[in-house]
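Fill in residues.
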């Protein structure tokens, strides 16, 4: 599948119908999701691999991974509505993915690759920490979006477990007016992407 085809498929996925501010349900833009997962595929981190979509939301990252040949994808989110949306989207994309309504800390399996756009801790302090901890203990390769302001802390946590940031890429997420506290119709939020290797 070419990247343009992947992006087109991801653009057709339904969003989470009633996103919750308390768990920072901001969607990963289709173009960015396609670019990141396609690049991960090019690095050998997707095809034939087991993949965890941590805090999967509408399933966009996990579905992209499965479309690019992941052997198995497991998506987890604490919000039942998000999981139901992800299930419908997987059917629409004609891919088989395992979905679970659960806290990220309940994940016990290990995966070749973790993909995640977790809460950044803007609404609830340290909401990102469980995702960071689980990804670094359950994944061999991790692709994570993070708040640029947390970069120093995240790097320290990665290095503390023997991990290494191999790639760093800045993005901007266009966030539409979603919640009552939003002022602008669309606000562009700076975001960093890390690719991390953990262990040998």
């Amino acid at each position: 599948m070419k990247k343009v085809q992947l992006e087109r498929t991801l653009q057709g996925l339904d969003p989470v119908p009633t996103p919750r501010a308390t768990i920072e349900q901001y969607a990963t833009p289709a173009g960015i999701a396609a670019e990141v997962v396609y690049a991960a595929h090019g690095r050998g981190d997707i095809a034939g691999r087991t993949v965890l979509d941590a805090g999967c939301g509408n399933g966009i990252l996990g579905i992209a991974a499965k479309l690019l040949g992941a052997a198995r994808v497991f998506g987890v989110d604490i919000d039942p509505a998000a999981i139901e949306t992800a299930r419908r989207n997987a059917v629409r994309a004609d891919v088989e993915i395992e979905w679970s309504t659960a806290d990220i800390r309940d994940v016990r399996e290990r995966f070749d690759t973790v993909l995640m756009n977790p809460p950044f801790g803007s609404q609830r302090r340290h909401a990102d920490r469980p995702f960071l901890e689980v990804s670094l203990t359950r994944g061999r390769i991790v692709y994570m979006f993070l708040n640029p302001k947390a970069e120093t802390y995240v790097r320290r946590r990665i290095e503390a477990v023997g991990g290494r940031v191999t790639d760093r890429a800045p993005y901007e997420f266009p966030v539409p007016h979603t919640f009552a506290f939003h002022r602008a119709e669309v606000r562009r939020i700076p975001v960093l992407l890390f690719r991390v290797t953990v262990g040998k």
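Residues 3-14+24-197 form a domain with the Rossmann fold fold (CATH 3.40.50.150).
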